[in-house]
Amino acid sequence: MKEKIKESISRDIEKDIEYMKELLKDNSDIVFREFQIQDLDAVIVYIDGMADKFLINDYVLESLMKEDCKIKDVNDIKDKVLTVSDMREVETLKEGINAMLSGETLMLIDGLEVGYIIATRSWPARGVSEPSGETVIRGAREGFTETIRFNTALVRRRIRDTRLRVVPKALGERSKTDVAIMYIDDIVNESVLEELNKRIENIEIDAILDSGYIEQLVEDDPFSPFPQMQSTERPDVVAAALYEGRIAVLVDNSPFAIVVPATLPNLFQSPDDYYQRWINASSIRILRTFAVTLSVIFPALYIAITSFHTAIIPSRLAYSIAASREGVPFPAFIETLIMEFSFALLLEAILRLPRPIGSTIGIVGGLIIGQAAVSAGIVSPIMIIITSLTAITEFITPNHEVSIGLRSVRILLIIAATILGLYGIMLGLILLLIHLIRLKSFGVPYLAPAVNPDIKDFKDMFVRLPLKYFKKRPDYMKTGDKIRQK
């Protein structure tokens, strides 16, 4: 239920002070400092710990309360007395209280029907450091923090263009979380921008605690295992996306920005692909594509061949697989599920535990899943090899959310292979392809540029051609300014 806050600011300051104290009662961190400006009563309201008290004391109270302060007109307070760089008027008490709850200082003066918001935000913040989730060999070591203003500055440092737009919004009926929508005005896809704004305006929720909330509330298909927005901790990735006509959404209290629209080829790309020579980048992309394909179909292929299509295996290999599975009491399907489940548990434990303990659990778990499981006759050695190769190839994916989605696809293919063999795998891949073709991200096909008629966009898909061939922005993005290199 929305809280109704008094709108108008009355000329009688005592009424406003009494109203705010009742509205904000039982809050020991909210400070009401009443004082006089010559013969006028005034009050400042701020939150201890979120507002800079040194700025308030030295540049607000000291300037207004000193004896030689002579004010002929109330407007002189803002224009001639206060020595603060960021200050604005508010006409409603609701706007003033919301700004105060965000870390600003609200000042009211008796006899005025307007209030003043003084920019005094100052709270403990983590410094800029290297992002742990997206490491690169060559490139900037800066990552986003939990402070939205730091994050917008990191992006603006890379885009010194007057046409860069940083549009503020506040989401969450109770949290009033600061959100910034960033785009380059003459490049952005206008239809995507309009659709994003429409979906954000329709969000009605108590609190936005992370950018993941917005991602789930505005995505096209919430039932798809694949992310339809790109999540990143890197300001250089956001800047590169803005130069392509995409839009970034930054959320206060979150070190992750989301970029829209996102396509599957984009999610398989790494910043390293653009910071090194094109031959190396292209070879890595080809290896990455092969590895991802292998991670999806390898366990299902093993089940299909060993359970249904043993005739296609060479005789020596068939004898070797049969000998390795001798004594294993489970069929290949159960054996594969045991390994998949065990590996998922081990990975989750490593991620959730503190780092020193997590590394120990990884070693112990690897021994249990590996040598101990084989010695106990629960799984075969060939299954250990398949699980290891699947895990290694899965981790090659630069985007963690994509790898989780591929894991879901792999489980479904394992079930299909258990029922229909190779035909089940083929049917599963066809259904997956149909889903990906139908899936869109804010009107942009999810498989673009693979489904785009302009063949020029293929220069940055499976391989990356030299940068001198990147004359135009991607055609499927329908950008305004299409030329990025002359």
Explain this structure to me?
- The protein is α+β, with helices and mostly antiparallel strands and 486 residues long.
- It contains 17 helices and twelve strands.
- The strands form three sheets. Strands 1-2-4-5-3 form a five-stranded antiparallel β-sheet, with helices on both faces.
- A hairpin with a 2-residue loop joins strand 1 (30-37) and strand 2 (40-47).
- The longest helix is centred in the middle third of the chain and has 30 residues, at 278-307.
- It holds the Pfam family GerA.
- One of its GO terms (cellular component) is membrane.
- Belongs to the GerABKA family.
- The chain crosses the membrane at residues 286-312, 332-351, 363-391, 411-434.
What is the approximate shape?
A: elongated
What is the number of domains? 3
SSE string: HEEHHEHEEHEEHHEHEEHHHHHHHHHEE
Helical content (DSSP H or I, runs of 4+): 40-55%
**Helical segment count:** 17
Main sheet properties:
5 strands, antiparallel
Number of strands: 12
Beta-strand content: 5-15%
Low-confidence stretches: none
The average pLDDT value, as a whole number, equals 88
- Distance, first to last CA: 55 Å
Give the C-alpha Rg. Answer: 29 Å
Question: Largest beta sheet: what is the strand line-up?
Answer: 1-2-4-5-3
* Class derived from helix and strand content: alpha+beta
Pfam family, one: GerA
Protein name: Spore germination protein
Transmembrane segments: 286-312, 332-351, 363-391, 411-434
InterPro entries: Spore_Ger (IPR004995), UPF0353/GerABKA_families (IPR050768)
